[in-house]
Amino acid sequence: MSIAAAIASPPLTSSNLRSLFSRSPSSFPLTTPSKSSSSALQFTLTPTPLLRNPNPQFSASAISVSAHETLSQTSFLDRRETGVLHFVKYHGLGNDFIMVNNLDSMEPKVTPEQAVRLCDRNFGIGADGVIFAMPGWSGTDYTMRIFNSDGSEPEMCGNGVRCFAKFISDLSNLNGRQSFTVHTGAGLIIPEIQDDGKVKVDMGEPVLKASDIPTKIPSNEDQSVVRTKIEVDGVNWNVTCVSMGNPHCVTFGREGDENLVVDELNLADIGPKFEHHKLFPARTNTEFVQVFSRSHLKMRVWERGAGATLACGTGACAVVVAAILEGRSERNCTVDLPGGPLEIEWREKDNHVYMTGPAEVVFYGSVEL
Ligand SMILES: N[C@@H](CCC[C@H](N)C(=O)O)C(=O)O
Fold it and tell me: Is the complex ipTM more than 0.95?
């Protein structure tokens, strides 16, 4: 409900509000109705000209909400008005994305500048990123690209790839197939939609070589950075660096005090200082971790290009890899994030990391670019 309220501008009357919320979940055309998807609202976001927009810079984001009686999956996403973007918003544990059907082209339908406006939580749709579902590349079934909410392009997104899998299965006829191959900036990623609706993703092998992460932190003999001291804003932190295609700096605490209580952190203050630290030439995502047991961790994340988010899938994978490297956990862990838990396994047999978690539709709509 807060979503509709947050995006509604004046044309939303009490009668169409009732109409929005009285809709039966089973009329939602994009997903198989399930307990968790029953909150998906069926409405169309239609662009309103600048009239109501106090800030012309954000013209793409003047949005009104109207009930849409005859929408179907194909009629909605196949419409091709020039200058109008049809999207479906998904989230994975509150890490939210504007999903774009880009299957007819390798050229993203949204520029990085437009992505910044669309992701704006006050003047736009509101999201942590924009994800493009594209044709496969080099033998894969599909390609996934993503722009962060600041317009930068990361190599990979864990929660995003679970949303991607659900989006693809809603868009395409997979003939009962539950798994497919996805080309990403981090290489081959293989999601599988489970019978319980969750998505399990083979996230590939973690990268531990400092120069490949990349980080300039002096590495150990094996070229990894494990439990190494760095100074951030005058404070010494012990960090382990892991790439899951994208760079992560994982910390369990400060020098001499490695029992973080993550809820006590001022993330908005410390997060950017890690992100832009000179030791991370491509910036970094940073995970602050509290250990409950050898199979139960809690983390908060400051994401490169997106700030504090409710969850980070690649981050949770990096956290478990770091916890294992530091001798703090087993290979199978539950990682609690602000948006909910993820199950992570770093499998000894193939050195791959596996992530399992939910992905849900929030709403779908159209917006003028
Ligand atoms: N939230 C994502 C990661 C998105 C990319 C990240 N901000 C970066 O720039 O590397 C996830 O779930 O993995």
Answer: yes
